[in-house]
């Protein structure tokens, strides 16, 4: 296996882990903020997603300021690979709560999925500004810079900060590997 194939395999693994982490963290975002009109959360069959989407769409049509319903709707669109609908639902959630780093990050992932790398990076950077220790945004910003924008040197500050916060997790090990690959990223400034 050559280095490009290895990089693609590592990136695919990272994206898979990222997706799983985001799905878990976002589906738990905002729990307890609005207890009325709860929407069942969690992975399920296509029928489960369809039912949750229909229920959430009904809730937001009756209560367009229901943050949790917009987030749940965005998450279900995210999980069912309806990127543009997820972007729109997250946008509605951000109109209600513009400084939610988890929603910004999820919307950034969807921007990346449709190829809007600059918008994705802007979302991750805003999330980092709101929460400087937001690991998922630090990680994602590095991926966009390194993989999508082909500017691995711009990934280094994000990933170095990530490694200062978390240096031993599987994601941290993947970041270290990506940073050490010749021509694919710079060495982190370790102290």
- The CATH class designation is Mainly Alpha
- Counted up, domains total 1
CATH topology: Serine Threonine Protein Phosphatase 5, Tetratricopeptide repeat
Number of strands: 0
* Percentage of residues in strands: under 5%
* Share of residues in helices: over 70%
Number of helices: 9
Mean pLDDT: 80
- Rounded to the nearest angstrom, the radius of gyration is 17 Å
In the CATH classification, which architecture applies?
A: Alpha Horseshoe
N-C termini distance? 33 Å
Kindly name the structural category: mainly alpha
CATH superfamily placement: Tetratricopeptide repeat domain
Instruction: Return the string of H and E elements.
Output: HHHHHHHHH
Describe the sheet with the most strands. Answer: none
* Low-confidence segments: 9-13, 15-41, 184-191
Overall geometry comes to elongated
Report on this model:
- The protein is 71% helix and 0% strand.
- It is mostly helical and 191 residues long.
- It has a single domain, classed as Tetratricopeptide repeat domain (Serine Threonine Protein Phosphatase 5, Tetratricopeptide repeat, Alpha Horseshoe).
- It is elongated and about 50 Å long.
What is the strand and helix layout of this fold?
Layout (H helix, E strand, L loop, with lengths): L2 H25 L18 H17 L4 H13 L3 H14 L4 H13 L3 H14 L4 H14 L3 H14 L4 H11 L11
